[in-house]
Amino acid sequence: ALSQRPAINPVSGSPSSSTLSGDIDNSPASTTGNSLHVISNPAGLSLTTSAVLDGFVITGGNANEGNTFGGGMYNDGRGSGKVCSPSPPSRSFSTTPA
């Protein structure tokens, strides 16, 4: 249960037990080699608020190469009848420029 997890605060050094990182070149000083999006939810998934993304830290995304949206999490709801609005109630984003 969420209430049993430790508090998440990556700034003070208390990350969750799960960290999703786009820092694929393992170079924290530079975002140049990082993934465009750490999580990418395309419109075809039709995610609604019943899709819960919970209990992790998302870090190291760098959406700056032609697609400047969603460095941490990109939700694409474009198109007729398309939806993409997952519910991220307890998560933390850290260093994910877009």
Report on the structure:
It is a single chain. This protein has 98 residues and is an all-beta fold. 0% of the residues lie in helices and 15% in strands. The protein has strands spanning 19-21, 39-41, 57-59, 73-75, 92-94. It has a 3-stranded parallel β-sheet with strand order 1-3-5, with no helix packed on it. A two-stranded parallel sheet has the order 2-4. It is flat, with a radius of gyration of 14 Å. The protein starts with 18 loop residues before the first strand and ends with a strand.
Mind sketching the topology for me?
Layout: E1 19-21, E2 39-41, E3 57-59, E4 73-75, E5 92-94
Parallel strand pairs: 1-3, 2-4, 3-5
Summarize the structure.
The protein is mostly beta strands and 98 residues long. It contains no helices and 5 strands.
Distance between the termini: 32 Å
Major β-sheet profile: 3 strands, parallel
Order of helices and strands: EEEEE
Shape: flat
The chain-level structural class is mainly beta
How many individual β-strands?
A: 5
- Strand content of the residues, in percent? 15-25%
| Strand arrangement across the biggest beta sheet | 1-3-5
Instruction: Calculate the mean pLDDT score and round it.
Output: 75
Number of helices: 0
Roughly how many Å is the radius of gyration?
14 Å
